[in-house]
Protein 1
Amino acid sequence: MLKLYNDPFAPSPRRVRMFMAEKAIEYERIDLSIAAGETQNAGFLALNPLGEVPVLVLDDGQCLTESLAICRYLEQRFPEPPLLGVDALEQTRIDSVVQRIMFRAYVPSTLAFRHTHKFWQGRIEQVPEFGAIAKQQVLDEWQLLNDTLAERPFMAGDQFSFADIVAYTTLEFGKPSGIRVNDHQTHLKRWQAEIAARPSAKA
Amino acid sequence: MLKLYNDPFAPSPRRVRMFMAEKAIEYERIDLSIAAGETQNAGFLALNPLGEVPVLVLDDGQCLTESLAICRYLEQRFPEPPLLGVDALEQTRIDSVVQRIMFRAYVPSTLAFRHTHKFWQGRIEQVPEFGAIAKQQVLDEWQLLNDTLAERPFMAGDQFSFADIVAYTTLEFGKPSGIRVNDHQTHLKRWQAEIAARPSAKA
């Protein structure tokens, strides 16, 4: 049985949980708390020296790290339903949107969180002035993605894909930093409601 | 013939140039200057509305964006020599190292550059205090990667791969921000010299 080391509140393992739920992959889930330091103890560092979740442990004990790499592995092993595209061009289109969202929405969301949220006070050197810039960058990107969704039902085209998982979990992760869909972003709002209604959104 | 829209000084298109050089892929290269605003004019925005290079234009005029997605596309179309691994587990190992370097070294390198370098003065709102934190994060990551290279010849194992391209171009990109290999990082230094000696490093 596959084992997933997870933190219930972290965005990266949530991507993997949602991906596995869409494919109905069975796995054992082991919850750790980043906040309580459980990803920094010797036992976990033996699985991933970087002390990051998710880690997917295979039947033979091999540990896979990095959520995007894990999802690509799972797509090969459990191809149905396809979430990363079925031919080279479709795969590239989806991948391109995934990369875009990761670098233009997810990364600045993590920076906004780290540099503005009280959770990080005293844990890292916060620079709130920079956090505000990062937050604005995220808000600008959601506006662009709202416009994109005027032209297509899902983030990467006509089909639900990993790009929607990455976008939805990024949007959810933004909430504690005050990053929300606003009422004028009707396309983003429609899309958010549709993704939230999928059972995998609760995984 | 494939066409690559490029900026000679930007790290993301350099990844693709190096990848194509390793595979001896022929293409037409079109150089633009981000600094001179050439990626923001209407002609280029028609190819990529985000105004980012690289863009790879296929024979039929389709435009592919995002360097990592472009390289994965090229790997499928030009499989030799393999740079992304030949079976699912090897692909995952390489991908995992690529993701690690992108998020832990490349992203903070871009932030250090943007928030400390004079090129960006007056172009964006700089927060030098944050730039210094980002720079330190990059330096810490290179130290970890130096330790990793004590145990294996290349970033992702025994073979040269895309992980080395991503790491090398990130290290090169750090230079204007004062991010260098130090004399005590003997493994990183050995690896850097080996990668620099490959013809693709000059692509």
Protein 2
Amino acid sequence: MLLSEMNNTQLCKMKDELLQQVNAYGNMKLNLNMTRGKPCKKQLDLTTEVLKDVDIYTNSVDEYGVDCRNYGELYGIKGLRILLAPLVGASEDRIILGGSSSLNMMYDVMMKMVVFGADEHSAPWGTGKKVKFLCPSPGYDRHFAITELLGFDLIPVDMTDSGPDMDQVEALVANDPSVKGIWCIPVYSNPTGVIYSEDTIKRLAWMKTTAEDFRIFCDNAYPVHFLDQYDTLSVNILDECEKAGNPDRTFVFSSTSKITYPGSGIAILASSKRNILSYNKMLSKQTIGPNKMNQLLHLRAFKSFNDILVHMERQAAILRPKFDIVDQILRRELEGLGIAEWTHPTGGYFISFDCMEGCAKRTVEIAKNVGVEFTAAGATYPYGKDPLDRNIRIAPTLPPVEELKTAIQVLCTCVKLAGVEKLLETNH
Amino acid sequence: MLLSEMNNTQLCKMKDELLQQVNAYGNMKLNLNMTRGKPCKKQLDLTTEVLKDVDIYTNSVDEYGVDCRNYGELYGIKGLRILLAPLVGASEDRIILGGSSSLNMMYDVMMKMVVFGADEHSAPWGTGKKVKFLCPSPGYDRHFAITELLGFDLIPVDMTDSGPDMDQVEALVANDPSVKGIWCIPVYSNPTGVIYSEDTIKRLAWMKTTAEDFRIFCDNAYPVHFLDQYDTLSVNILDECEKAGNPDRTFVFSSTSKITYPGSGIAILASSKRNILSYNKMLSKQTIGPNKMNQLLHLRAFKSFNDILVHMERQAAILRPKFDIVDQILRRELEGLGIAEWTHPTGGYFISFDCMEGCAKRTVEIAKNVGVEFTAAGATYPYGKDPLDRNIRIAPTLPPVEELKTAIQVLCTCVKLAGVEKLLETNH
């Protein structure tokens, strides 16, 4: 029965039952953290099996004669650029390997836009000037945080099942030169799990922007992070931008953070030849280069891209039951009540959960009170403000299955209680 | 006999002999690269011996319970911050460990000054505004390059035997609010090998600056890179700044790049509690953290700071003969001619060589023509312009001893030839 069709007597009865459940959870002294999309210990152990016997010391010279122990190779070693190229969809000469954080590379590119400008013809985006940045929402809080830190105006754009609402995007970029860029996660988008459609990617590449230095920050964080089977995007955004005559429009980022170890993976940046050349020119002033021994480790751990896919299938086998259990519990507890919807991702790290309008904060609050912490409600929107207060990001990967079950059961109880409270308040 | 006291006949005769020598070198088809302060293969092998059997996989959890494989620990792992603290002279709570490049941390801090400002009370240094930066010269070209990239005015300051000429520095900072900072290498300064005196460090800490957001970028690149014996600075610049009531004035950088592997060391930043706190606040937006597995490797490779010193003594044993042979050849070939002076460093990676005014470029050019490449003349000055065209940086560490001997003999011949040419031209 839909909650909205219940009368106050029914709602009050339900509220009492839910409060009892909440009390029972409170008595369990739970301490569960569901806030972060972190790989779990089993996944880390899987990677340890792959890395622990890789020898990078007996011979530290790569196949091109580079001693990976010494200075040099600003772009990162060539063998690994070739191996990881499919993650970003660019040839190895348009790839730069970074340190252990692709977020840091995004920040770095963004800082260069602000201080140096997109290219020699463009003014720096500047400090203290109004720059607008498009934020498909719900989206990734740490993307939004970088552009917020820089004082940009964050403009929310609705997410649809096929990517950002392109009608909105096209309208926003068409008439305002201060709209300088957009955040995108084209595959298993955080948190919805959406895969951008061919049409979305083509429109991103071809759309007319007033700002000539408009840039797409395309964070391909989960290119091989399937739950069921590997599938490449049918359209390569860098190629499409080139076709469209906008070759320099897009920076594609990726990393091995959720392939090998989150704390010590390899970050990747790919773009047009021109962008990479100009980036590298600045890089040569900025750093003595990335950690090449870690690159050699990754290169020797995986003989081919297929080895990576085999490793990711093993990771998927750990994660699949977790995503399944979340969906099962949500369906069992919430189906037919008309108070919640959630996504059914085929990869990535998150499930996006929408409850009744105005209930997300309250839901997260009740859960926190009984010892289960979810990502702050609103975090998936610019400035942490979900205009409808309905989105919660579920991160099923880190906790063991039993803890995850408890956490999601708590979530269901809390979301029902928040819904009942809301309806009683409205009916009043 | 002083070259300057020779008559033209003597000079012409000498020129003929030198040209013959140069031709002989040319016939040897040399291909020697003396441009970079890179550790040599033997040094790398020494580090391989230390690292190759360190196990970071059987147990990747550090003594504080941090699984170094996963996300987290923005500051870097605590054990390593404690171990490396003596490199920067600060307690572990005022230290941030970075990636593999301390230069990158300097660039990063500098970019934050430009975009965000030194603190909440200070305006950003800004893009397109005139910022002046003091550059003790001869100094490190890659320091100068960062501030040049940002469009700052680079103001040369003379280097003395006890550090930057503090009379000049104090005069420059006293009356001009656009003078925002200074580059310093307090120990075995690049390229002179100078160790800053107590007095220099005290004056840097205590001097009155018009700019309240004046910052010392103190690159302690060679704190344990002695040739003879380890010696700490008698004055700690961070402590002295605190005493002077200027606690936030100094950022100290260091790294293990020339302790372990240049390409995969650990960069270090230390400063006041306030600076570190504010830096870390931004860091939390910018990155998911540094490579902690590499940190764990370093932590387990050296049980104590004394272990590091023992390792550095072994490195010194490799480098000492190289510095000695350079000095021997220079003395044998050039002493008494009055055309060259050079430093006698007790540590670090360079010897600073001064030839006759107006002869450095020509010397490097002749050497290059016979296949021996030295660091570009002028590189040790802002904008690559040595006003007296006399300084050449000698980097003795990379080549094997026999190659080094040849390279320095070539240098001596070239510097004599350039001197003779100059004198003949002047006498004309």
Protein 3
Amino acid sequence: MTAAARLTARARATNLQSFAGIRKGLALGLAATANEALANSRTVHEAGRERDFLTAVANLQSMTKADLEAVNAEILKRMQSPVSMIPELAGHLINAGGKRLRPMLTLASARLFHYQGADHVKLAAAVELIHGATLLHDDVVDQSALRRGASTANIIWGNKESVLVGDFIFARAFELMVEAKDLRVLKALSHASGVIAQGEVLQLTTQKNLSATFETYLQVVEAKTAALFAAATEVGGLISGRTREEEEAVRQFGLNFGVAYQLIDDALDYAGFEASLGKTVGDDFREGKMTAPVVFAVARAREHEKPFWRRTIADGDIRDGDFEQARDYIERDGAIEDTISCARDYADKALEAMASVPENEFSKALENLVVTSTARAV
Amino acid sequence: MTAAARLTARARATNLQSFAGIRKGLALGLAATANEALANSRTVHEAGRERDFLTAVANLQSMTKADLEAVNAEILKRMQSPVSMIPELAGHLINAGGKRLRPMLTLASARLFHYQGADHVKLAAAVELIHGATLLHDDVVDQSALRRGASTANIIWGNKESVLVGDFIFARAFELMVEAKDLRVLKALSHASGVIAQGEVLQLTTQKNLSATFETYLQVVEAKTAALFAAATEVGGLISGRTREEEEAVRQFGLNFGVAYQLIDDALDYAGFEASLGKTVGDDFREGKMTAPVVFAVARAREHEKPFWRRTIADGDIRDGDFEQARDYIERDGAIEDTISCARDYADKALEAMASVPENEFSKALENLVVTSTARAV
């Protein structure tokens, strides 16, 4: 059994175990109680596997601690501006407790290849800034009020401000990456930025559209999430001067991890506990997003249930109890199971890609991230 | 008398002549009549100097015809996407009859230096795309309904769509410029992008703020407009492998031309005729923008006039006849004259910068653009 296969097997087992937990919880109507327990407990993550994922994140954070601090300093420096609203708004976003997952991918990928230079820090910062700019614009587009448990910038400062500061952050990301003076890196990151925006537009055009397919949903996920994960890990390979095969391997790792990560995130929006996620569960439902759980549930809906989906998703007429009803349908039809199963397939591919790169503490930490993320608390 | 000094003298003469015309028209209350005459006439530009400016633009367009067609083809190609909304929305923006002023600056600057390669086309396209992305976001932020005589994308498609397609266009601009593989060019253009966004935020924070100074206004103009003009011309020098002095000269030309151009544009928003501008006169007033004419007029307002500016600009409570009243105050206090005079100073600097570059048909065409733009129909 290869290392990857072992990890995969572990992921499957953990997933199934975790998923059995949710099924049971939902079936018994325990969700609300569990949710309350979580909210009232100091050990909020003990109810699920979110803890394992956060431990894996913390592990990678501690392995890249010095680099990550340099990334944070670089980001802070780049957000300075005599126009005071810029550091204020950007600071709110950046200090809002993000996991720094994407920049860690770049740092870990570079370390995995024994990179000795200093450009990985700039590039990791650029990756996080591209992500940050996207979040600001996303929150405007989605009219979100809450992110990571805090009010969003568009609520505090306004939509106009978020749009323009987002543009500033995006431009600064490019300035930073240009400083690394590597044309292949620039190509990878600028291409990813275009793909992300294209994915965001595609997502917008499929919103409230009940005939959106799972294939279209996957295109959205690959573009809006996985493209940046892929570029983030690829960049670590590109600056390390490794073989084309190794560069492609880390890129494939990031790409497939990105899809898996987003699939789980979308499952959690229906099956997760708000307290442990730090975000508002049910946002996707309220926004009429055609994510995997809804795509599956709509496809399996009985004739008399279809008006429910038309009213809630297509017409956006959402009433008390609708989200719970949607969860029931999604649960009954195995839509969460299938979403997780699909995530697991992508996680497998991510782990398989790692067979072509050196095995060391960084490759293991990255693998562990994939394994635990597909088994997150649900 | 140097060539630049000659041109400057001509610019001053033309400006004064033209400005005498406006003063007269406004004083006699002829604006509405003249406006109607313009709208009903096939020779709409004959009433002013807009025609001379458009002739200078057309001249440069014809001198760079083949390149400009290649730029348009490149732009069209880069806006392709399987997500059909992207080429639709981008196509609307790009075909809406822009003058292609900024890409022409890059093309003419490269030609001026006898550039023989093909990268000027890609870079000119990138410059226009950065401009286009900015316009899309501007129109969302300003809630504009009309641009170049046509409905804006935010009105036709929506704000969300404009934000995300703007991001896509911006990312594609970066992809394009990366292909030119010149790190100094990338530095210039990515830096300009950050400066533009910073200028947009600064403009937003000064909006409706009656205490905004002329210095702050100039900072906004230098950032939101002149930075891209400067980068557009600088890039032509950078790719041509000329001396540092020549690169700096074309950059200074673009920078100062950009400020002059924006000052005149802002004057026209109070003194221009809608039909010849293809935009809604009075937009800046309705948006409470602290542009030069208002900054000057507010500073010179008599005590009993101050409540008018507070109500209209600061509170945004605009009633029938207010715009005409604002025009009267602005006219009476010489605020348009001073705005134009300031524009002329920047135009002088632009023309002086050209003393350090080869004199040929392209340098002359660029100079003519500056001269006629500061004498535009008002």
Protein 4
Amino acid sequence: MEITVTSGKKITAFPNASLLESLKKAGIYLTSSCGGKGTCGKCKVIVRSGQAVSKSKMKLSKEEIDRGYVLACKTYPSGDLLIDIPKESMLIVEGKVVTGKSKDLLALLNSTGAGLDPLTSRIVIELPPPTLDDNISDLERLRRELLSQGMACLRVPFRFLPDLAKTIREEKWTITLSTIHTEDCEEIIRISSGDKKLPQYGAAIDIGTTTIVVFLVDLVTGKLIDVASTYNSQIRYGDDVITRIVHATEHNKLKELNDAVISDINTLLSVIIKNHHIDIESIDCLVFAGNTTMTHLFLGLDPAAIREEPYIPTANTFPLSFAGELGIGVNPNIPIYAFPCVASYVGGDIVSGILAAQLHKKQELSIFIDIGTNGEIVIGNSEWLVSAACSAGPCFEGSGMKCGMRATEGAIEGVTINRDTLEVDIKVIGEGVRPVGICGSGMIDVIAEMFFAGIIDQKGKLQEVVSGRVRKGEDGLEFVVYSGEGRDLVLTEPDIENIVRAKAAIYAGFSTLLKEVGFTFNDIEKIYIAGGFGKFLDIEKAIMIGMLPELPKDRFTYMGNTSVTGAYLCLLSRDLRTEAEEIAKKMTYLELSVSRSFMDEYMSGLFIPHTNIDAFPGVKKLMER
Amino acid sequence: MEITVTSGKKITAFPNASLLESLKKAGIYLTSSCGGKGTCGKCKVIVRSGQAVSKSKMKLSKEEIDRGYVLACKTYPSGDLLIDIPKESMLIVEGKVVTGKSKDLLALLNSTGAGLDPLTSRIVIELPPPTLDDNISDLERLRRELLSQGMACLRVPFRFLPDLAKTIREEKWTITLSTIHTEDCEEIIRISSGDKKLPQYGAAIDIGTTTIVVFLVDLVTGKLIDVASTYNSQIRYGDDVITRIVHATEHNKLKELNDAVISDINTLLSVIIKNHHIDIESIDCLVFAGNTTMTHLFLGLDPAAIREEPYIPTANTFPLSFAGELGIGVNPNIPIYAFPCVASYVGGDIVSGILAAQLHKKQELSIFIDIGTNGEIVIGNSEWLVSAACSAGPCFEGSGMKCGMRATEGAIEGVTINRDTLEVDIKVIGEGVRPVGICGSGMIDVIAEMFFAGIIDQKGKLQEVVSGRVRKGEDGLEFVVYSGEGRDLVLTEPDIENIVRAKAAIYAGFSTLLKEVGFTFNDIEKIYIAGGFGKFLDIEKAIMIGMLPELPKDRFTYMGNTSVTGAYLCLLSRDLRTEAEEIAKKMTYLELSVSRSFMDEYMSGLFIPHTNIDAFPGVKKLMER
């Protein structure tokens, strides 16, 4: 049996294999947060012709079923098939679009003043063969050669001894060492045969609660080779870190969560190296940043105490681990550097973000906010840093939203609604691309635009009488953002409530933290915003809905995914790794959940833009118009 | 089915299990160099009554078969049995006889001036439980506590993180750490629950080509708990290091050799801990010394290049390894310290011997010789050390000799032959014990006594006409040393040739090395002799046969097994480990095999006492009488 994809590719349908599995074997990866259990509804494909048996239609709407949508993980071909894979079902590999991003990253690295000094190095060594007069052991010979080349200290873990004699003789006394600098010594992490200096790659990884992003980086040039991202498969066990910890603790399923994220990263790495015809042995090191819970789950550390007062992680700084210890599908001796965390609810992703924003080096008082599934806020300057966390939920990353998606090709990232005609204008990521979902920035726009067009009220309730685009859906009222071929893209009332709660939490975080450290919004000279919004976030609209404080627009800088950016920086620079460790050490943490002020602020934020409208004079003026 | 041992013990005969296996399951360990293949003939037992099927009688004499001897590994009971286990078949555990040895060892340790500072330490820590105001991570809490107690630096390998949170909470914030001092830092090697400070044991191990000896030592008091020893099961693959390397290299059987020695050590350890009711988790560290080949085979390192010119080992100094890496049956995180080696044919056992003799601290010119399967000689003082090696063969350890055995209970260790009556008087190890074999010192005595009684000539040929004890045996003429119940104990002509070759090699080593460094025997103020001769070695008789040079008797000191003694010292003292490393670094190595002088000396030594009788004026005088 054969499966033809409308893009033109023909693949083999393996017997008794689901469509998802056959596609995977052919190198076509679909998002599949539930791991093929038919529960996440992410691996939708459209059967254009041919016969197939679908064992579950869970998460598919009537409309979708009518149009031929099936879940690839639950569909088994019974003959040749012609299928269409919607963009939102594809696991995202950016491919050729990364050139610009690569230049920006290199420019950022250069701007820090740090040189290119990656986590691991390779050294090719030619050893003088032994003679009766020079008969020191192989290991001493190696050490003598390296010290004579200026290395101060060499550490050789026992595991490299068994094959050493054979390797250097088979390779006629020329071998390549991979080393990592630890504790003022170079430690061998790999011994390869012959001259294997090039190529050398490393991966910078952001492990988000909702999204996982992998950068493959050339360690010699610092160039970004490719970017791949996917939803964190742990989503099947819950949307936020708390439900994941509960799953790990009360159901004793830490291993399940650990396996899920390891398998996601393995998939992303294998897709990139396949696309670029890269030998897996060329990957020399991994650096990752994640919040404290994600870091624990990735490293297989018990997260139970993170959830219970007084909220204690196993560690905030982590010893180096190795791929073989964690089950990462690269050479087992490859080291994995974990970004240091600050506290149970401010993790390595935030340390990474501060490093990317270079906030820790700035004189002026600044705020950094990372809007992910958790919202983390840091205030400070080169002297001090105080952080806090608030739970925003995964809505801005497209998770838990009817037509949500990440900020990748096909996502509606911008929306305008004509105040008079109520006509909707959309902006889609990618050139000439059909919209397939709405990402975080698009959602902020829709809310702001609907509010000023009178389609929702201050509580976010849809006004059915106002617009023909408001209709009854499966989950109550919904607003049709886009209607075309395929399914309509809508924002439902539960979606809107999600966003309103999220923006209320973020604003409450801002204002409570400021109050705690004795400042007001006007003292803040810079606000750095990070998050998975893609290239574009309309600051004004974020202010309009009351998510961001009303300050002059030039004080805001939108930075995208700073967690992976910081991981990229540390992959390439020892100095910046030291800086990251200093940031983590310096940053203090305020627990907002015990603050009554936070709850009050949160409740006030459940209106658009805010109960205290005077905090938003510009928005007030607009509303009065 | 039941097996009754004449000592009184009753054990179960397991179906389809050999006698050897059933005895092992009941905790009765027999020597079995071939691992139960029926080829070494070491696991002999006597069936007194009952029925059993013996599948092989290899290595048993007609006389033995007539007396009911069987190979336990090839014998399968078909009903209840009554058996007798000869002492020579028992794997040796010294049990209660170690008290005196323990005192001597402690006295030696004290005499070096080194304090008791074992390879690993345990620290019990009570952590203050976290609060909202003191909410650092578990790891940081541990580190803070240890640093506040004065520890300078703590290294925590990644593998200890996954269980850390659970362990400290289950144990209500009191845990026990085992640590090892490496690179100016304390590294965690084990985290145990609760207060587990006592007891703590370590093992000091001598891995000889022929014999393996294990000391179990109390790390807190330095007391020797017990000693166990056995033949190195690698013997089944060849008697000397060269045939073992050939087996590992040409037959690609490194793993077989590695498994053999690991299994021997596991057996010895398990026997001791069983006898003393010791929890395996109380064993915290292992230190071993062995020649360079034995060290390689134990660590699983490829020994091929040791055998080929220019004779290169993989390493002479070894990174710490862990029990789990090597398959030692203690806690997998237990560190194993390998004695540093000097060159391919002067290994850690010799460095250990020099440390035990403290030769490296002496002003006077001294010689150290270790007579094992290899004979290694070191000459020097506190300024310099030069070493060389010569192959003696395993005869002095009882291997390859018809009635040979190690110097353990039941061994004939001393022999006198009345020059007039030719009556033989023997001295046996153990009180009131029936002799069961002849150990190295006994063999030297027999040769010397036979020579002066005229029973052998200068070439070592037996003179049938002289003594009624000379008779024809299976291997030609033989001399009956002891005749009693059980089998007769004899020395055959091939046995005598073995000993003559061995003593010739040792003397040639002495004299060639001296010549090379420009000294004569008279310059030597002290000669330290090491080897598995037990408590007793008659220096005069060793001179008589021309094995040792003729010097005043008070210049000789017999030291027993110095390899395991040095291992004991390093198990208990960091200073002495540093000294051992300095000895290895300081010692130079002379390759005698390329010296023509050595061959000439060896040929001259094939006479008793020597072709150059003038080198032995005292012996000459005796001969003239």
